[in-house]
Amino acid sequence: MKIIIVNGSARKGNTLAAIEAFSEGAKSKNEIEIIQADKLNIGFCKGCGACEFHKGCVDKDDTNSTIDKLVEADMIVFATPVYWWGMTAQTKLVIDKCYCRGAQIKGKKIGVLVPGGSPVDATQYELIKNQFECMASYLDWNILFYKPFYANGKDEIRNNAELVKKITDLGSRL
């Protein structure tokens, strides 16, 4: 299976540690590619409709090459830290630009990794989960996992062998 991971964090902290652990578990049976969202030159969706939902974005930036990868993937994993009770702007920007090829990303397998600085029963995790569930309903996505983590310190995931093993095991089950 070809898995594209959209890293919505610009830092090299807990989100990256979760991605690394997940990738370590998944790499033996799957092809993994990580898209570093903050490195992309993608403008915001203007809702112009010129793409007609399947032709691609008219913007001359990294949108179409990025969305091509998502279209070709069997599974997309979104990894985003919690910023202001939601996913990062970088993550949302990539998702918004999926509009240009929405019909071609229907039916994808999806995973979501969400580290944040509050216990996992806090409201922000539920808000992010609800947003992904709404997108999944609209696009017929099959959410294989939604995994929130309480990780406040910079290397909290990396320094927690038990948590790293759980995330690695999550990847190995694919």
Summarize this, please?
The chain is α/β, with parallel strands linked by helices and 174 residues long. The chain has helices spanning 14-26, 63-72, 89-97, 123-139, 161-172, and strands spanning 2-7, 31-36, 75-79, 109-116, 142-150. Helix 3 links the parallel strand 3 and strand 4.
Main sheet specs:
5 strands, parallel
Helix coverage percent: 25-40%
CATH topology: Rossmann fold
Low-confidence stretches: none
Strand order of the largest sheet: 2-1-3-4-5
SSE run: EHEHEHEHEH
CATH classification, class level:
Alpha Beta
- Give the radius of gyration: 16 Å
Count all strands and give the number: 5
Number of helices: 5
Classify the beta-strand content into a percent band. 15-25%
**Anisotropy-based shape:** globular
Mean pLDDT: 95
Under the CATH scheme, the architecture is 3-Layer(aba) Sandwich
Distance between the termini: 8 Å
Query: Which structural class fits the helix and strand makeup?
Result: alpha/beta
How many domain modules?
A: 1
CATH superfamily: Flavodoxin domain
Structure in words:
With 174 residues, the protein is an alpha/beta fold. The chain has a single domain, classed as Flavodoxin domain (Rossmann fold). Helices cover 35% and strands 20% of the residues. It has a 5-stranded parallel beta sheet, sandwiched between helices. α4 links the parallel β4 and β5. α1 packs across α5. It is globular. The model has no long low-confidence stretch (mean pLDDT 95).
